Each structure stands twice: as C-alpha cells, then as structure tokens.
Amino acid sequence: MGPPHPPGPERSAAWRRWFADEARAERPDLATLCLLIGAEADGALDEAGMDAAQIELDRLAGEVPFRPGGPQAWATALAEHLGGRCGFRGSAGDYQRLESSLLHEVLRRRRGLPILLSVVWMEVARRAGAHVYGVALPGHFVVGFGPPTAPQGASLSAEFEEQILADPFDGGRVMTGPDAELLVAGATGAPLDPSMLTPADPLDVVLRILNNIRAWAAARPERGDVALWAVDLSLLLPSHPARLRYDRAQLLVQHGDFLAGATELDAYADIVAPVDEPAADRVRQQARAARAMLN
Fold it and tell me: Where on the phi/psi map is residue 67: left (φ > 0), alpha (ψ -120 to 50), or beta?
C-alpha cells in the first residue's frame, strides 16, 4: 500500500479550522488532534472514520482489567493487553511509512512510531482510569505511570520507585531506571536528567508528531506536499518555533509558488531583524531571488 493521499481543498480547510479550534481549547484532546492530522494526510478519512477510531480506543480501554492497582500494575496490564493480546508494537520498517505517524492507521495496522504507539497507550489507559502521561525522552517517546516528578534533590533511583515508564514501541516493556539511562546515553551521549521524566504537554506531543512527518517528507523530495501541510498545521498551534515560517517559505519556493514564498521570507526577516539584522538581510536576499524567478 502506498502513502495516503490528501483531501481536497474544501475538506482540508474544514479540518484545519477544527484543528486550530481544538488546539486552542482549554483542554485540547490529543486523540482528536492526532486524528485531524490523519484527515489532512488521508482523504479517505472522514468524520465517521474519526468517530470509529475514538470508539476503537474506547473498546480497547473497556478490555483493560478494572483498576489494576499502582503504577507498576497499570503498566503491566497495558503491556499484556495492548502489546500482548492486541499486538501493538513497532519495528525499524515503521520509520519508512507515513502511516506510522497517523493514529487511525496505527489503530488499524497495530504498528507505528514510538510517539503514536504512546498516544494509543495514553488514550487507552486514560479512558480506563490510569494516571498516565507521555515522556519525551531524547530520541524515543515512552509513557509514564504514577507521580511524574521526584521530590527536590531525590536521586534517579528514588524517582523510579514511584514513576514507572513503559516503551510501547517494544510492546509496552516496563523500563527500569538503568534502561532509561542507557536509552538517553545512546541517543545523546549524556546522562539522564530527572527533568527529562516530566510529562509532555499534549500540544508538544502534536508538534513532535508533525516534526516526524516533516522528517519523513524531507527524505522524499517528491512529497513536498506532505511537508507543506505538516508545517501549516504546526503553525496553527498556539506556540510554535518562529523558524517554521522560514521553512514554509522555502517549501513554497520549492513548489514554484515564488511570490508567496518571497512574501513569507520578507515576513520572517521582519521577525528576525530586531535580534539579528545580518540574518534578516540574508533572508531578504532570498526573497529577492525568489521574486526574480517570476521573470
């Protein structure tokens, strides 16, 4: 199966309005935002399909044993249910598929990237009554159960006596403190800091998913359309890196929309100018070069 194809302009505009409204809600719904990313990627996904995905999350939650106990028991119960009986997990090949970043496809295929599998774990566990949250370890997203932070001055070993981490990409394997330390050391070469174990904000999770989609598209120049809508959705989030406007401008120029790209470059230069005038001048030069391509 090839990558999904995006919806038409009218439906895309409707999804983006919904996405922007949900992102600015008092309590943004992570599953809804992920499904709207899927709808922007896959023209075959409609509201009925999104409802079906939410119902599937409800169904999976209904199969979790009632109130398993403390954090360790919750993590074990989710691993046995989602990773074991249901077969949710990931593999190296999943990094090569756009579907691995789309929640409705992850629910269908039961395969995905660590962050999307973590979304499944979080949404199912939350519906079942667990205190659960995402943990954005460097290079690998996992889920946490129990108190998310240690007392002031506590050691990592003390932290792991309360907080339990699970790796959905590995079928929900419950991680020990040394497991997490080894994972972070392998990704960064630096030791694990307790601050890395804090809960990830839902909108930061969404931005990270969109960044993964952009990375997938960057390796496939023919799918610049995917990179562009991923940037557009990122810009709809209440908080996002200003650099995204520059990235969007570059994508527009690459797509041959030189005038729109030049306009975006000028706007980005205006943002940069107060802190780095030489950088702003370079961006303005790029804008002039883009306009010159119109001749």
Answer: left
